Amino acid sequence: MSLLKEIQRYTFYVSSANRTTGTNTNFSITTSKILTLLSKHSRFALILHSITIPFSFYQMDSSINTLSVSVRDATGNIKNGNITLTPGNYNATSILTELSTQLTTFCQTSSGSYVGYTPVPYFSYNTNTGLTSLSLKFGYNITLNFSTNLSFGGFFGFTTNQTFNSSTTVTSSSIVVTNPIYCLFLRSPNLIQYNNKEFIVSGSSDIISNIIYRIPITTQTGTYIQYVLNTDPFFISNTNISQFQFLLTNCINNKEVDLQSLAFQFNSQLLNMKFHLMNLLVK
């Protein structure tokens, strides 16, 4: 049987504004002295206590706002390319307006044999069902390749490619979600965890996790996300630490969060825990 005894505790109050290197959401801080395990049978354990983050990031950000599209002109010539929505926070109707604007601009520009024209989109959101419908009052085939960017498609309730025109209307099969970033993750790439796995992003499942804090979002944009909850201590494999690396990511693609240059703060403790082995005699 083993018992744990705390032999040293380091408390850190960190603001990304006072980083040693990096950006305000992907940075390193260097300690004034190297932190080393103080005993042969000891390990470092980490506890997170609280975090404050400005809700200054956009739900539709630059990591998900581009979509592959294909459009036809009056004689059937095809133009392939990408549209990019303006980063920002949208509701179910304003995001349709932005999609309409960007598609119209794309269709208007001639390319090769494709002759530009001005379509008249007819996009609607049903407040009762939470679904969107896409059609044209005037225009020719438009294909939105939602399968290539599911995060983008989620804003409109689509997970597969969709083609519509002036005589064909497509309706989403899923509820529209214009706030897909419902939590953030504070990560530490250089604090080595073991036995801790994550299954969050498709294609990156069953990997050793570097998450040290999960922060739910329970407030509105333009305010501060305040989260206070002690984590259980979890052990890391580092035997000495001279630098801490921290990364703040979203929950949909693990990309770095853009806080528009604003800093965030958190409080943590690093414990040096010693294992005491005890023999039990069973009679």
Please characterize this protein's 3D structure:
With 283 residues, the protein is mainly beta. The chain contains 2 helices and 19 strands.
Topology:
Layout (H helix, E strand, L loop, with lengths): L1 E14 L5 E2 L3 E11 L5 E13 L11 E7 L5 E7 L9 H15 L11 E7 L4 E8 L3 E3 L5 H5 L7 E3 L5 E2 L11 E5 L9 E2 L8 E2 L2 E6 L7 E5 L5 E3 L3 E11 L14 E13 L6
Antiparallel strand pairs: 1-19, 2-3, 3-18, 4-16, 4-17, 4-19, 5-6, 5-9, 7-8, 8-11, 9-10, 12-15, 12-18, 13-14
Quick structural overview:
The protein has 283 residues and is mainly β. It is 7% helix and 44% strand. It folds into 2 domains: 2-57 and 181-277, Sandwich (Jelly Rolls); 66-171, no CATH class.
Which tags fit this structure?
mainly beta, Jelly Rolls, 2 domains, five-stranded antiparallel beta sheet, 19 strands, 44% strand, elongated, disordered C terminus
Helix content estimate: under 10%
Task: Name the CATH architecture of the largest domain.
Answer: Sandwich
| Low-confidence blocks of residues | 279-283
**Order of SSEs:** EEEEEEHEEEHEEEEEEEEEE
What structural category do the secondary elements indicate?
mainly beta
Tell me, what's the shape?
elongated
Q: What top-tier CATH class of the largest domain fits best?
A: Mainly Beta
Number of domains: 2
Number of helices: 2
Assembly state of the chains shown: single chain
User: What proportion strand?
Assistant: 35-45%
The major sheet is characterized as: 5 strands, antiparallel
CATH topology-level name of the largest domain? Jelly Rolls
Radius of gyration, in Å, reads: 25 Å
Give the rounded overall mean pLDDT.
Answer: 93
Q: Please give the number of β-strands.
A: 19
Q: How far apart are the termini?
A: 16 Å
